[in-house]
Write a structure and sequence with these properties.
Blueprint (H helix, E strand, L loop, with lengths): L1 H46 L3 H7 L11 H6 L3 H33 L7 H10 L7 H11 L7 H4 L6 H11 L4 H9 L4 H12 L1 H16 L3 H6 L9 H21 L9 H36 L2
Length: 305
């Protein structure tokens, strides 16, 4: 009887401590989530604030003087920004699909114990994370040898493969028993059939994680676009288009100031916030759909050696 009471007391204490730990965890996670949300709310509120209110009151979460003038300037030419959106979406979709397939195949091949040159190739891939050829050879390769000046392929090709993502995929695929590949070979399946029908379905978390990394890289890409896509092209990627909008507004304001001309109608600060909302909005809407796979893929890829 005493033993039963003691066990019941221990169970009650365990439940109480478990509830306390969960409560502390929820409070901490909730507080951390709010801290992560506040900067975005600040950007959103400032984007709808007039420039004069920003000068007088600074940045606020809630607009002191509501204004959509910054968005009107950003969307002044809707055809251009729509074309930039379509270009970015197309490059992101095609680049993510191709890059994900290439990274998955490379990671799968490099972890196969029956692949004789896996260690040498892995070394060369890892070596590129430490040393780079530099900007000038890269520019000459794209423009002179590949002749991709003013071609969207100049933005698409450099982002297809990443050493970090290949290593992550390799570590994830290593968790899959090699016996599955051997049993499929006994049944007469080829390497490509094994990869497509067996390996890919088992690596969904890694594919979602790596796909998100590749997609974000293409969506936020502007540097290669600036190098290889000239102003003669009508539609350029979204990030470069928004960068040019901000640069032009900043140039107009500075020119007016140097000429002692008042130009208060250029909402430079609110335009910066508006462009941030325009650029990150689709990513924020897309991220919740792959969040669970993203967390699982990061965890498994980090633990497996």
């Amino acid at each position: 009887m005493d033993e039963a009471n003691e066990n019941e007391t221990r169970s009650v204490r365990t439940d109480a401590s478990s509830i306390f730990v969960k409560l502390v965890g929820y409070v901490f996670i909730g507080f951390f989530s709010i801290c992560c949300l506040l900067p975005f709310l600040l950007v959103l509120g400032t984007s709808f604030t007039s420039e004069s209110a920003i000068k007088r009151f600074g940045f606020n979460f809630w607009p002191r003087e509501f204004s959509t003038f910054a968005y009107k300037i950003v969307f002044e030419n809707p055809n251009l920004i729509l074309g930039s959106y379509l270009v970015t979406i197309g490059i992101t979709a095609v680049g993510t699909a191709l890059g994900l397939f290439l990274v998955a195949m490379t990671g799968y091949a490099l972890q196969r114990p029956d692949f004789a040159y896996r260690n040498r190739i892995s070394f060369f891939i890892y070596f590129t994370t430490l040393f780079s050829g530099g900007l000038v050879p890269f520019y000459l390769l794209i423009t002179q040898y590949l002749s991709l000046k003013d071609n969207y392929l100049a933005v698409l090709l450099p982002g297809l493969l990443s050493p970090f993502l290949i290593i992550m995929m390799k570590n994830f695929v290593r968790s899959i028993p090699h016996a599955i590949t051997e049993s499929a070979k006994i049944d007469g399946a080829g390497d490509f059939t094994i990869f497509v029908r067996l390996i890919l379905p088992m690596t969904t978390p890694a594919l979602a994680t790596i796909g998100l990394f590749i997609a974000l890289g293409y969506w936020n890409e502007w540097y290669n676009s600036m190098l290889f896509l000239s102003a003669d092209m009508k539609y350029r990627p979204l990030q470069l288009f928004l960068y040019n909008v901000i640069t032009s507004a900043d140039f107009i304001r500075n020119s007016a100031a140097s000429s002692n001309v008042e130009l208060r109608d250029v909402p430079l600060e609110s335009m910066k916030m508006a462009t941030a909302i325009v650029a990150t909005g689709p990513v924020i809407l897309f991220y919740p759909f792959v969040q669970r796979y993203f967390i699982k893929g990061i965890t498994v890829g980090a633990v497996k050696g």
